[in-house]
């Protein structure tokens, strides 16, 4: 392997120290810690783990964590009533509703009910619009984390050719907007794209967010490219469950200049970006200056 490993876990830990300092400063000025509310509907085991680690991280950094666990048969009205209560709660600066919601709940309507000032997931249409318009707002956690890793690895991204594979509202679309704002030339590829290998081969930056285990082959990667792997798929291999990304890591690492591992790459940055957004939302809501959290 020749690529530099982009250590998301270590970068997230450093960012966490700066967020903790910002949270403590916020508490000293306002008399209360920044507050994050996480809503989990149902008992999906993976979601349980994510929600627990978000709550644990918030408390570790000196923030208040409000965890709301609702049964899988919660009605749309009950969920909207909870969101309305969190919108009105002065101790809550950020609201995250864990996705996916069990059917038949309508996640779009729930997300649109969140106060955009508390939308720490960056999923409200107003947050998405702010990003496209280049206005300050809250940016979706996974793309924000990817951008921080790219800046840390490459410095300026201006003029680089980037490809984002995957066009979800949670990751692909905001990622492309962030790269465009960094003056990259951005290609957005997806399941219907033609000649994907050729398109990937032209990119200096590859962000893989398709959700299909090891779909991006190592031979496609341009030598010297930087690869950010958003995927986390559990696969059974030699009788053991393994977490793998959207990129064929071993082969890609032979060609890339730098690459994120799975786990330990993008995942830890997603959670830390949520903490980042919670502190930013808290400061904005109180009219306080947002601390400089870039290393
Ligand atoms: N409203 C909403 N916002 C989200 O941001 C959101 C969501 N819903 N639903 C589910 C996905 C998934 N997600 C992850 C967070 C952390 C890791 C993470 O820390 N992963 C570790 C490995 C963890 C493991 O071993 O399973 C790593 O990559 O190193 C992964 C995935 C946030 N999501
Ligand atoms: Mg990861």
From TrEMBL:
Pathway annotation: One-carbon metabolism; tetrahydrofolate interconversion
Where on this chain does NADP(+) bind?
Answer: 166-168, 232
Query: Tetrahydrofolate dehydrogenase/cyclohydrolase catalytic domain location, by residue?
Result: 6-121
Catalytic activity annotation: (6R)-5,10-methenyltetrahydrofolate + H2O = (6R)-10-formyltetrahydrofolate + H(+); (6R)-5,10-methylene-5,6,7,8-tetrahydrofolate + NADP(+) = (6R)-5,10-methenyltetrahydrofolate + NADPH
Residue ranges annotated for the Tetrahydrofolate dehydrogenase/cyclohydrolase NAD(P)-binding domain, each copy included: 140-284
Q: Looking at the Swiss-Prot or TrEMBL record, what is one Pfam family this protein matches?
A: THF_DHG_CYH
**An individual GO BP term:** L-histidine biosynthetic process
Organism superkingdom? Bacteria
Q: Which UniProt keywords apply?
A: Amino-acid biosynthesis, Histidine biosynthesis, Hydrolase, Methionine biosynthesis, Multifunctional enzyme, NADP, One-carbon metabolism, Oxidoreductase, Plasmid, Purine biosynthesis
**What EC identifiers does the entry list?**
1.5.1.5, 3.5.4.9
Tell me which PANTHER family the record gives: C-1-TETRAHYDROFOLATE SYNTHASE, CYTOPLASMIC, C-1-TETRAHYDROFOLATE SYNTHASE, CYTOPLASMIC-RELATED
Subunit architecture: Homodimer.
User: Which protein family is it in?
Assistant: Belongs to the tetrahydrofolate dehydrogenase/cyclohydrolase family.
Query: What is the protein name given in its UniProt record?
Result: Bifunctional protein FolD
Q: Which organism is it from?
A: Celeribacter indicus
